[in-house]
């Protein structure tokens, strides 16, 4: 009996079909497109089925591109299923027996996956399945990424179905309190480090770091406060503000200070520039001075504070 196996027979085939080739297309661009298709396959295989808008947002592309990729996957033999709610998935069959990738194909896939930001939980999960010898060598890192992947999947599913969840034993960085949080998840921050969720107990939309969530319990309770959901893009330190309060900080950092700041707050990297006299300069508008004050107090010799006056006063008045 002939079985229709739903798998990529040849990675280069995906590249040929999915990437509009021309003589001046860069190889990296081709890799990024292949990476998106692989991400899409992973999302379609995971239950539940997903709407086009969620698929497009998850891999950072347009609805139109998702439809084109779905047509491509159908032409490659994938059984794309659409449910009554216009949500898509790849049909699962018991007789799937995909052929193993060759070493050349594995290297091509890895190079494509490397182009995905390392903050995306799907990145290291795919690399782990490929047996990546470099980025996934530390067992503890594998466990962390796998845990984050489960957290991400549960929250994504709850968003898709508009269901309330409990964030078990969430550790607050502000109060150091550990407790369960009943929330309505709205979205992920662009770097996938936090989930934006409305908490009825505080009547606020808050940002919850995925690494501080022990587990997610999905309740069979639909959203009750959708009209109160609001997603304000956080500042480079992960703080959001619901009012007009903001501060413009201006710092000069040593090379060590720059590296330490980026390590603690990855989003600051894009805001740091190199001045004409080779100084690392950070100028940014932030919603709170708390994180930068703590950071400066930890390594004062590595940072020169130029402004603003609020930051200078806060530092002079702090212990």
Descriptive notes:
This protein is of the alpha+beta class and 319 residues long. The chain folds into three domains: 11-116, Arc Repressor Mutant, subunit A, CATH 1.10.10.10; 142-228, SH3 Domains (SH3 type barrels); 247-317, 2-Layer Sandwich (Alpha-Beta Plaits), CATH 3.30.70. Helix content is 37%, strand content 22%. It is built from ten helices and twelve strands. It has helices at 11-18, 27-45, 52-58, 63-75, 103-113, 121-130, 139-161, 255-264, 290-298, 309-317, and strands at 50-51, 80-82, 87-90, 163-171, 178-188, 194-199, 204-209, 215-222, 247-253, 272-274, 280-286, 303-307. The strands form three sheets. It has a five-stranded antiparallel β-sheet. A four-stranded antiparallel β-sheet has the order 10-11-9-12. Strand 5 (178-188) and strand 6 form a beta hairpin. The longest helix has 23 residues, at 139-161. It is globular and about 65 Å long. The N and C termini lie far apart (77 Å). Residues 1-28 and 132-143 have low confidence and may be disordered.
What is the CA-CA span between the terminal residues? 77 Å
> What number is the mean pLDDT?
76
Query: How large is the share of residues in beta strands?
Result: 15-25%
Low-confidence runs of at least 5 consecutive residues:
1-28, 132-143
What's the architecture of the largest domain in CATH terms? Orthogonal Bundle
Determine the number of helices (DSSP H or I, runs of at least 4 residues). 10
The class by helix and strand makeup works out as alpha+beta
């Amino acid at each position: 009996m002939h079985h229709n196996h739903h798998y990529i027979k040849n990675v280069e085939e995906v590249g040929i079909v999915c990437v509009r080739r021309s003589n001046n297309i860069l190889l990296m661009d081709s890799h990024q497109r292949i990476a998106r298709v692989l991400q899409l396959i992973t999302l379609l295989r995971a239950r539940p089925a997903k709407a086009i808008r969620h698929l497009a947002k998850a891999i950072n592309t347009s609805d139109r591109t998702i439809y084109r990729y779905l047509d491509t996957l159908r032409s490659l033999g994938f059984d794309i299923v659409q449910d009554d709610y216009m949500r898509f998935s790849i049909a699962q069959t018991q007789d799937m027996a995909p052929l193993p990738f060759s070493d050349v194909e594995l290297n091509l896939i890895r190079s494509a996956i490397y182009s995905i930001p390392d903050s995306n939980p799907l990145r290291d999960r795919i690399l782990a399945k490929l047996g990546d010898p470099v980025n996934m060598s530390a067992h503890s890192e594998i466990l962390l990424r796998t845990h984050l992947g489960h957290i991400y999947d549960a929250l994504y599913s709850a968003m898709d179905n508009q269901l309330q969840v409990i964030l078990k034993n969430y550790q607050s960085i502000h109060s150091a309190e550990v407790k369960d949080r009943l929330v309505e998840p709205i979205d992920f921050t662009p770097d996938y480090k936090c989930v934006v969720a409305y908490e009825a107990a505080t009547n606020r939309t808050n940002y919850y770091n995925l690494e501080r969530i022990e587990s997610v319990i999905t309740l069979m309770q639909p959203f009750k406060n959708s009209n109160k959901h609001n997603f304000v893009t956080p500042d480079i330190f992960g703080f959001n503000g619901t009012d007009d309060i903001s501060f413009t900080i201006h710092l000069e950092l040593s090379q060590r200070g720059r590296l330490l700041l980026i390590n603690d707050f990855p989003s600051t990297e894009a805001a740091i520039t190199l001045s004409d006299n080779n100084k690392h300069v950070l100028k940014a508008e932030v919603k709170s001075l708390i994180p930068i004050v703590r950071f400066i107090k930890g390594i004062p010799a590595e940072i020169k504070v130029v402004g603003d006056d609020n930051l200078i006063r806060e530092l002079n008045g702090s212990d």
